[in-house]
Structures are given as structure tokens and as C-alpha cells.
Queue: 4 jobs
Job 1
Amino acid sequence: MALLLALLLAQAQAAPHPCMEDVKKLCPGVEAGGGRISACLQERAADLSEDCKTRVAQFREGAEACEADTKKLCPDSKPGNERNACMQQHKNEVSPACREFFWRMVQLRNDAQATMRACRPDAKKLCKDVKQGGGKVLQCQQQHRSELSPECGRLVP
């Protein structure tokens, strides 16, 4: 679930996600990083919205498709960048379901990174005093929507 939440937070600027409202509502003040938001949502799993529960279930289903491949191809890798790099090295050996899931996650990350790059100048200019984490920069950008550059304005939900 930690990977899911990291991707959700990274993707938050690219498109609204059903779990972002849950993060704001259930984990206010919890700073992103170190798995803190993931732990908070896991503790409050019963309180998650139905849309968020559905999205988490979809993610878990995809992640489970890769579990056997991960154990077989990258048994000693640590979760995160190390495991992703290992799976990338073995991309031609993974099952089709895992390959589809892996590439979907890579695309989400790439989309989120592109959005953050496009909006970074606006964030520095308009939200320079806002502490990152918990969607605060996104909220600031939404409050300054009329002042955003055209490129960033198209991407901020």
C-alpha cells in the first residue's frame, strides 16, 4: 500500500484521485514521506470512502499479479527504487499481467513528474511559503488558478 500512496500523492497534481480526499479528511497534518500517510490510511481503512477502497483493491489486484514474479526474479531486492530497477532488468521475463501493471505504474509516475515539472515555477512563485505535503501545494495552486501559467493551468484539477 505504501507504493500506492506514494503514487497517489505524486499523481495528485496530474488528476484528482479518490483517495486524496480521504488523506485530507482522515490524515490532516500527517506529513508525506516515510510511509506516514500510508500508515495513517491503513489504520483508518474502515473509514475510507468507497471510491478509495475500490481504487486500493484495484491496485492490490495488480500488485498481486507481480508478487510471484518479484519473488522469483528479484527475491532480495528492497521495495521501492531497488525493486523497480530489478523488475525493469527482467521486464521480458515477467507475466503479461505484471508487465501491464508495472507499465501502468511507470506511466502514472511519469505523468505526475511531468505535471510537477510544468507547475514547479508557478508553485515557487505563488506558493513559496507553503510547506509541501498533504496536497497543500496543490490547494495553493487551485486558489491561484487564474494566475497559473497556461501549461500548469491545464494540468491542475
Job 2
Amino acid sequence: MPLDASKYYLLRASNGWDIMVRRGLGAPTIISGGARWDLVERPRRKSMVVWKGEDPWRMNVPVIFDGWIDDKNVEYDIRRTAQLLQSRGDRVPPYTFRLDGALPVSGGVWVMENIEWGDNVYWRPNRGSGVRMRQDATLQCLEYEAETVLTINKPPPMSIQYRVQAGETLQSIAAKRHITLQALKDANNIRDGKKLKPGTLIMIPPSVGAVTGSSQPSKGHIGA
């Protein structure tokens, strides 16, 4: 049967548990989350609105674990819901869950931040010990956002200055620096590099290929 969203919520945990609970007496409410904005003042002009990012939603959902009408023990559902607050072991986060029903935030994946248990409780004796047939609670849900690893790209290599030594030519410098002769000419706006005065400062572009005695990169080889 399809879920009657006017009466029930269906909690579907990532471990395969499906827990049906009644809607509580109060409406679900959004506590926090959504876009964050800054107002940037500008002299003699209207302030500028700057978007800073977005926070996960926090939502309180009143529910009732109700087995009174059907004479059903709800202790098992209560324990399973409470276990969503606990880690499954060392370095392992708690389970996530989805929540279906009439909610201000639909879809998404949640984690259980806290559960506030109410006092609307009906007990039924069972061989000397009581079991709950009804229990109200407020599920404090936090929208789950998976952890990501921040990667920082290295900046592209930059050209460096080089002082020509006695006896060096553009061709010998290009071979020594593992760059093409043409790249070295282009970086220094030089057409004929046969005659270089010792002490001249030239720019060495980033290494793009290992070449000796050629103005074109070697085929099939990429330098470091």
C-alpha cells in the first residue's frame, strides 16, 4: 500500500531497516540550514548581497511510535530508531536514513542528531515487566553531506631567468634544460641565437620536451 503521508512517516535506514511511525501532534519544523548570505556595505550605494555558501538542513520531526490500536509492542522499533544515534564501531559513522512523508524538506539523506522522548507513553504489563505500546518523540534530523577530500592543484611552472655562460648557445642551453630550441627562441623573442654574449640574461620557459639539436620536440617523449 502507498504511504498515507497525512498519518505516517516511513524511515528507511541505510542498513535495510524500514520503520513506520505515526505523525506527531506538532508539525515538522526547519531549525536551520539553507543559503548563507553576507551584506557588504557600499558607501552611498545600496548594500551588496554576497552568497557565502549553503548549510545542511536541520529538521525536527514529531512522531509517535503507536501500537496501541493494533496491540503491537513498539519497543523493537524504538530500539532500532535509537541505534541510528550510535556508531557501528571504531572509525565507522552511524547509519544514514531517508524519511518519506509530508515534510518541509523532501528527499535527501539524513543522520540522527538527537531524539527527544516525550511523556505520551502507554504501557502494557508483560510477565511482570511493562512494554511500551505508544511513545511520542521528536526526531532531530541533520541532512547528510558526504565528506570530500580537498585537492589543491599545483600552479603551472613559471619561466626562470638564466645568465648565459661563455661558449653557450641557445641550442646547447635548450638541450641542457630539456626544452625545445623554438620554445627558447619564442620566450626571448630571438631569431638567431648562434651568437650569445656571456652574461646575457635570458628566460628559460617550463620544460616541455627533451630535445638535442632540433627545433621540434621528440616524438613520443614528454619531459618532466
Job 3
Amino acid sequence: MTTSPEQQRTNQQNKSLYLFFRLLAKALNDAGLDQRKVMKPSAEIPWNPESVKTNLWVPIQEAMIQKDSTADATTKDYSQIYDVLARHLTTKLGAEVPAWPDKFREDER
């Protein structure tokens, strides 16, 4: 049995990734889980898409696939990284994590 090589993320996956960063930043802020509560103890720091990427997504990605650029993730990596991040935020912090963006869901456009 031959396995096909994994492909780099698609343009649609990249768009979904950045939409997810925006949605998660909003969800964390709405839940009162500023960056201080999630990461740092000293100051209230609201989330934005870039801080979600830098402080949440990329560290998990590096630990899982040893790549620090989201551009280097493969098509399969995104769902695995999302699952770990969502599980952590839900179980450890009780955060409501948005579903992965789907091009068929109207509420995310």
C-alpha cells in the first residue's frame, strides 16, 4: 500500500486558520479570559488574531510538528492542532472554542 505525501496547506485552509484566530480571540475576550488569565499573571491583555496565533497556535504547532511557521503546516496538521488547542481551552479554562471555520457556514463570513 502506497501513501501519498502530505501537501502544504491550501489557500482555503489558510483563510480558515486566520478566520479561526479572529473568532477565538473574540470568544476568549467575550468569556473574560484575557491573556493574563490564560498565560501571564500580571496584566489584563485582550486577545487579537495575532496574539492567538503567536501565543496559542504556534506553540502547540511547534510541539506537535516541529514547525514554527503556519505556512509549513500540511493539510492534515491543521485539524490535529485545532483539536489539541480546543480540548485544552475547553477542559482547562472552560472556554467556548469556536468551531473550525467552514466555507459553508454563513455566520462566519
Job 4
Amino acid sequence: MPDSLHIETFILGDWQTNCYVLHAKPVVADATLPTPCWIVDAGFEPHKLIQYIKRNNLAPRAVLLTHAHIDHIAGLPDIRRHWPDLPILIHEDETAFLTDPMLNLSAFLPEPLVVPEATATFKHGDTLEVAGLACLIRHTPGHSPGGATLYFQSESTAFVGDTLFRDSVGRSDFPTSDQAALFRSISEQLLTLPDDTRVLPGHGPATTIGRERRSNPFLRQT
């Protein structure tokens, strides 16, 4: 498996959200110029993530959101306090979630959540350049309407948000969820990837497409 992309994982907040910092290898902590990095999702209490970026002389270029439920966006205000102009990118179908507590599932919490608006959107089939590598956007709705997978073919790696987990799949009982769309996304956009593709989900341990194809009990119908 190619290994030119460094992926640092942070498990943030009480909801144990997997958030990631991506940058090219190697990173030189004492370099004069900072190394560009990208953030994938921003959960509650992102202090460890922020400290990692600063300690390693990294320069954030954007936050890429797999979707906009509260546990994946709650850290955006803290991140923006450190980098006020940092771009926030999300699928075009989910921009309203960032400023609507009903949509981002925070309306019934003690402090409903409104976070900074997206500065740009992406859609299915778009390609972003991240750390000098091509990142293909695959629209994977179902858990939420704008769920997106960030697929690095050259690295055999897919960031899938809450669409697919090790031995499980994303919830589809939220007001904007769609169970049929979820399984269609998994079948058409994820299980079509090579078996050795590393799957980095929004919660829980990493897995591979091949493992989930063989043993995930929820995928027998796909």
C-alpha cells in the first residue's frame, strides 16, 4: 500500500468521534516553512488536534467535512479561533446543517450548535488536491443527505464518515436519514472499491473494504 500521506487520528469528545489530520511525509518539526495539512471532521474538544498541528509546525489549508452532524462539526469554532480564515468544505447538500441545530441534531441539547458557514462546497465526482494527492469525492448519502467519502486512490484509503463501520453501518433513523440510500451508497460507492482499501470511519477502528464485504453482518443484503 502506498504510504506518502501521513494520517494522524484523534478520538474527540464524549461521542468518540474520529477526526484526522493529513499531511505529506515527512514532516520536519523545525522546518522554517510550515508543512501544509488538512483536517477531516472537527469533533468536540479538539484541543489535542490543535496542539498536534502547532507542535509539528503544520499549516492548515482546509477542514473537509464528511457530514455535518454535531459530533463532526462541534470543534469548528475552536479551530477557527486559531485559524480565522481557514476554509470549511462540505458536500453541497448539507451546507444548511452547519447553522441549523435541528438539522445538525443539536437542537435538543443544552446548548444547540451553530458553527461557521462553509466557505466552499464539493459534489460527487469532484477531485480535491490534498497534500499533493488526488482526493476523489464520492457522495454517500443515507446517514445524512450530504454524506461524503474522501477517497485517495493512490493511498488505497477512504474516509467514510458515518456511512460504514467495522462490522456495522451508519444509523439511518435520524430525521434526514434514508436507509435505502445508505445501503445503496455502500453498495455502489464503497463496495466497488478494491478489497485492500483502508476504511477510516467516523467512529471506531479502521477496517478494509474486503473485510467488511466478507464479514459485516449488515451487508448481507447488498
